[in-house]
Please model this.
Amino acid sequence: MKATGIVRRIDDLGRVVIPKEIRRTMRIREGDPLEIYTDREGEVIFKKYSPIGELNGFAGQYAETLYRTAELPVVVCDRDGIIACAGIPKKEFLDKSISQQLEEIMEGRTLKKSAPGEEIYLTSDHNGDYRVSVAMPIIAGGDVIGAVASVTGEGHPISLSQDVETKLILTAAGFLGRQLED
Model:
């Protein structure tokens, strides 16, 4: 654990303010859920909670199935990073931070198809030659919790029509969202 040197007091309602610098660095936004842990030494640890993280294995299987049946490279991400992928190198992309563009697609809460010549980066570091082709936010209980996106790149074309690709991404996002509501 890394010390920050910042000390905060608990107010009369039991609240503590997480400093803006830490929220910005850790990408904690207003309304984000935090999970609270304690240990035997009396430490209290706040960890960002990702509802879709509970479906990590399931999301990976779904992505793998889409890739095997439709040859559609796919990523599933929560609001911060990629949690599952198929058809692209897992070592390069799993647990990487998503791009600002993908965050904005999630905030928009609607399907996004990349236009010809438009480059929607997958990760914040613009890793590799992979780009988002079609993306749909995953919505559960009225909240955006992540996204499903098809991925294309130089030497990695998508062989499906954009209509079929779009329907597969819409289905995946809808299905994963419903899994979290049940």
User: Anything to note?
Assistant: The chain has a mean pLDDT of 86. The helical segments are 20-25, 56-70, 90-93, 100-108, 162-181.
